[in-house]
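re: ur msg from earlier - yeah i can do the EPZ complex, just paste it... oh wait u already did. ok heres what im feeding in:
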Amino acid sequence: MDKLLITGPSQLHGSVRISGAKNAVLPILAATLLCEQPTTINRVPHLRDVTTTMELLGSMGVNLTLGDDNSIELDASNVTSYEAPYELVKTMRASILVLGPLLARFGQAKVSLPGGCAIGSRPVDLHINGMRALGASISVEKGFINASVPNGLKAADITLETITVTGTENLLMAAVLAKGTSVIRNAAREPEVTDLANFLVSVGAKISGIGTHTLEVEGVDSLSGTEYTVLSDRIEAGTYLVAAAASCGAVTLKDVCLDSLNGVLDKLRETGAHITTEGDTVTLDMKGERPNAVDISTAPYPGFPTDMQAQFVAMNAVANGTAVVTENVFENRFMHVQELQRMGADIRLQGNTVIIKGVKNLTGAPVMATDLRASASLVIAGIIAHGETLVDRIYHIDRGYACIEEKMTQLGANIKRVS
Ligand code: EPZ
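and the outut:
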């Protein structure tokens, strides 16, 4: 099993190009199941989760043609299977995103129930209840969600009791072909949800309230094809900025979407980082200074992103002062803490909060990745720690970061993949 061997400390300097957003491309690829004509998706990141999604769509009969410039052409005019098998769903929870499109276009779907996950139980009850509200009959047995709506989905007024990103996306994809006008209230407003909505509008969907907590969808008979470029990945960008801040360095990121980064940039300015922006480029410069500790409290967008929590914990571990970090979205998203403690971090866990006292430096150690963003925090810690850090189970990181060791090496890190 691959591991990442990191020798620190390094101060990061230089520039990297940010890839397309994992959490935007996954729902958009699923949404191509709705389209009668071929679609071309540009700026597709080279990630394991994208490969898994392509495998899943291919197994259903979608015709995929890979371009040599991170683009994919997808043709769903001849879908033959409506099933998302366990073998694929167990490796990627986001496979649940085919449920809405399959029901909307084909009136049936059989999707393996996503299991729990390292960061929490992550039920899909809101997805299922929403589909039932749109007229689908759904049974959950033997680990599968069996859904059917032979006479087609019918519009509904749905209020989500919890803000759910993929729940909003699934229901949005179902509603675009439902008869009548649906309303989705307490909808997620993440930029990736907005990107999906913009993709759907580009193939003929009628959606208003995009970017707000209330989406109104007027169902149409069919959706056409399009060429669409995926949003830039705000979490990948935030990860490199935090790595630079933790290492007291200076980096420039290209191809970013600044609007989606505001909360993270404001928090980084609090650390004392000097941040300049121009068009789709952002530069962070610590002027060689150690970051100041910053408090974090995660929340649905436009609040502070839970997907950036682990990275900031790693940075706070070597910051000036003490930080309080509270995780409000997932019930178990601090597994990186015990690994960072092995590296000498002074962190106390109290329920859904950690208190982090910045130490002078971390010390390299063998550590284990437990989930995608925890892996990123361990890579950041390895880059700034004194000595060697061996990060195990890095299949987690390959799910969400394209070419992380190449990009970090470009910035001056001493990092290589070893078996
Ligand atoms: C999406 O997951 C992202 N994944 C996650 O990114 C991200 O952390 C999360 O949104 C929150 O922003 C993708 O977009 C593929 P949720 P999702 O439904 O949709 C509860 C990463 O690192 N809930 O918004 O699964 C749930 O338990 C990944 O890139 C229900 O109770 O998250 C959680 O506490 C990790 N019932 C809260 O809502 C449901 O039916 C928010 O979860 C659905 C969710």
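cool cool. DSSP finds 14 helices and 24 strands in the chain. ping me if u need the other ligands too
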